[in-house]
Automatic annotation (TrEMBL):
Gene3D superfamilies: SH3 Domains. It comes from the Eukaryota. Keywords: Phosphoprotein. This is PRAM protein. One of its GO terms (biological process) is protein localization to plasma membrane. The gene is Pram1. Pfam families: hSH3 (PF14603). GO terms for cellular component: plasma membrane. Residues 16-73 form the Helically-extended SH3 domain.
Length: 75
């Protein structure tokens, strides 16, 4: 990873923490794949756009219906 890529990832993490009021370090609990049979959903606001078969990093289980995740583009 180059210096420029490292700085870009650090900025993405800071933006994430600010947007979701997340304190502390970001630890990935597990990874999951979006169901390949699911319909694709557009993101908006704080919702992540979902694509079939996409791998997501699970950061926090907020409740039974919502999970705090990020995709490969660190969104």
């Amino acid at each position: 990873m180059t210096f420029k890529e490292c700085k870009k990832e650090e900025k993405a993490d800071r933006d994430f923490q600010k947007k979701f009021k997340f304190e502390g370090s970001i630890n990935v609990l597990t990874r999951m794949m979006v169901d390949p049979a699911a319909t694709e959903k557009r993101g908006g606001g704080k919702n992540l756009p979902l694509r079939r078969g996409e791998i997501l990093d699970v950061i926090q289980f907020t409740n039974q219906e919502q999970i705090l995740c990020r995709n490969s583009q660190r969104r």
